[in-house]
Amino acid sequence: MSLPIVLTALIAFLLATTGWVALHLTVDAHHHRVFGTRIDAGRRLRLRAAGLACLACPMFLAVHAGWNASGLAWSLPLVAAGLSVVPCTVLRRWSPRAMPIAGSGALAAAALLTLPLAWGAAASPAPLVAARSSAPPLLLFGEVHDNVQQHALRLQVFKTLLDSGARPALLMEQFDREHQETIDHLRNASRGGVVDAQRLIDAATTPESRWAWELYRPYIELALAHDLPILAANVSRRDARLVAARGLAALGFDAAVPSDIARRQAELIVASHCGWVDEAQALPMAQAQIARDQFMARLLEQQLERGAVLFAGNGHVRRDFGVPRWLSPPARARAVSIGLLEEGDEDSGNAFDRAVTTPRQPREDPCASMRDKPVNAKQLRA
């Protein structure tokens, strides 16, 4: 086999690979961003044309090689082009929007999504987050509440962020807004070194709190150590029941809810309650989730000057029907939504600017108890 034939095959392989990559990007472009770059219709057409041109090149190379050689010269470039499907299949299964992370290397692997921050010139890169402007960003971190690996990953990102010099406000779904005054009082007292994170948790929660506080305490410790504002970002269960019964306007929230948001929130509630409520029953319950999203958005709007980090469930940080939908256009442009998903949930990764997939947290089937002992919608709202 002559060197020219081998070189021709190699060139054919590289061209075909480039073509498949370009076409892959046009498929993903309907999500509007690829590798952090906005893909409009014009760019999509140019990418598609470039991809098709690159895929056509191996055929011309095969014809050219066949002028002076045997049938091998005709076939080898085409075989090489066919092999290009292999790396591109791998590419299709990996996306910077939904990157799988597993095992002890999870934190190091997160650096694959590293982009620079904009909390000042001295800021160093931090995993998973990207600045869209020169102003401090609004970072919306999702979670599966009990996933230990996700908390470890997010804590490392938070530490890196603070080490870079950033001093954002910390918004936490885990605290109800009624406790903001208590949090502020204890945070001010902590400056004298007399308040620790556990004391703040005990004072700013009720005995009915269902959060696994051992997973959230490290965030609060970091916030206290760096003198960050800690903002209670949740609507209480009492207020949520009131909204579900009387509507959003009863507590001063925006009742003009787009139909797609109400529908998607209701669908999520039906799924999360294992089908024991139908969509008609779920719609009032969805109002409570919408109230939470609107309140979180209000708090983020108040932190545009210094920037903010929100820790909340994945459903709250989705760009399609979560908190970002309630942000003003300037705030939305600065918001970066990061979903922390579990294996099997990757299909929802496109609802976030960035998504990381971790192994599932071992847990009992949440629907098992409902199958054994059905409950009604009123019990579910309680």
TrEMBL record:
Compositionally biased spans, kind Basic and acidic residues: 361-375
Gene3D superfamilies: 3.40.50.11550
Record field: transmembrane: 6-27, 47-67, 73-91, 98-119
InterPro entries to which the protein is assigned, alphabetical: Cofac_haem-bd_dom (IPR007314), DUF3325 (IPR021762)
Signal peptide limits: none
Cell wall biogenesis/degradation in keyword set: no
Keyword match Chaperone: no
The protein, known as: Haem-binding uptake Tiki superfamily ChaN domain-containing protein
Disordered: region residues: 344-382
UniProt cross-references to SUPFAM superfamilies, sorted A to Z: EreA/ChaN-like
Origin: domain of life: Bacteria
Keywords noted in UniProt: Membrane, Transmembrane, Transmembrane helix
Haem-binding uptake Tiki superfamily ChaN domain ranges (all copies): 134-327
A Pfam family assignment: DUF3325
Source organism: Roseateles depolymerans
